[in-house]
Design brief:
The protein is 30% helix and 19% strand. By secondary structure, it is α/β, with parallel strands linked by helices. It has a single domain, classed as 2-Layer Sandwich (Ribosomal Protein S5, domain 2), CATH 3.30.230. Belongs to the peptidase S16 family. GO terms for molecular function: ATP binding; ATP-dependent peptidase activity; serine-type endopeptidase activity. Keywords: ATP-binding, Hydrolase, Nucleotide-binding, Protease, Serine protease.
Length: 248
């Protein structure tokens, strides 16, 4: 007698579900299919005290938002930088400090003892979280200035705004790379506004229309532009305050 032949599937359609049975993929199935999430939403409540601002970084995996934190303490005018920073990023921090010191009186920024010399008997610590990741490049300049302006003014930076841009000693904002990926990171994080260098405006053409519609873009050519957009109500200079007072 002949042995029975094993059953075989001659067509992939034998495995298909009936057309009237929809395939449902829930959150748990999606995680199994795609793996763990590549991006995590940052929590805006981290900006609940002065001395914190949101910057933007570019990585081979795309853009990311990046928090910059600052604190001050009694000391001898030392600047401490932590967070695995490269030389260019360290130079940006020193540029930011120099610009703020030279404009402290104009913006009415003082240290803990009320002096316009921000480093007088004062040490500053700047930290860039995710310390295991090396960070470099000039694009955090505007974020460092904003973070320190928040620290010395005691004012909170807006929690819905991120920024990127290189700075100069004269307070200009220079163009940077990776704008498309950085803007996508802002949108992904649920923020509402992004400050970018004015000379990067042309790069917005690469960003999907739905993303552009959801965000408010601030084109900055100077650090005055950045600070006025990063704080609710703007960031007045002494000259402007005197002008307003003279109107009262």
């Amino acid at each position: 007698t002949e042995e029975p032949k094993p059953e075989t599937l001659h067509d992939a359609s034998d495995l298909a579900l009936p057309p009237e049975m929809p395939i449902l993929i829930d959150f748990h199935a999606l995680k199994d299919i795609l793996g763990p999430p590549m991006y995590e939403l940052e929590v805006s409540v981290r900006l609940n005290q002065p001395g914190v601002a949101i910057g933007l970084a570019w990585t081979p995996l795309g853009g990311e938002i990046m928090f910059v934190e600052a604190s001050r303490m009694d000391g001898e005018g030392q600047l401490t930088l932590t967070g695995q920073l490269g030389d260019v990023m360290k130079e940006s921090a020193h540029l930011a400090i120099s610009w703020l010191r030279s404009n402290a009186k104009r913006y009415q920024l003082t240290n803990a003892s009320g002096s316009f010399d921000l480093l007088d008997n004062t040490d500053i610590h700047l930290h860039f979280p995710a310390g295991a990741v090396t960070k470099d490049g000039p694009s955090a300049g505007v974020t460092i200035v904003t973070c320190l302006a928040s620290l010395f003014s005691g004012r909170l930076v807006r929690s819905d705004v991120a920024m990127t841009g290189e700075i100069t000693l004269r307070g200009l904002v220079l163009p940077v790379g990776g704008i498309k990926d950085k803007v996508l990171a802002v949108h992904r994080a649920g923020l509402k506004s992004v400050i970018i260098p004015e000379r990067n405006e042309k790069d917005l053409e690469e960003i999907p229309a739905n993303v552009r519609q959801d965000l408010n873009f601030v084109m900055a050519s100077t650090l005055d532009d950045v600070l006025n957009s990063a704080f609710d109500g703007g960031f007045s200079t002494q000259a402007r305050l005197n002008h307003l007072n003279s109107k009262l």
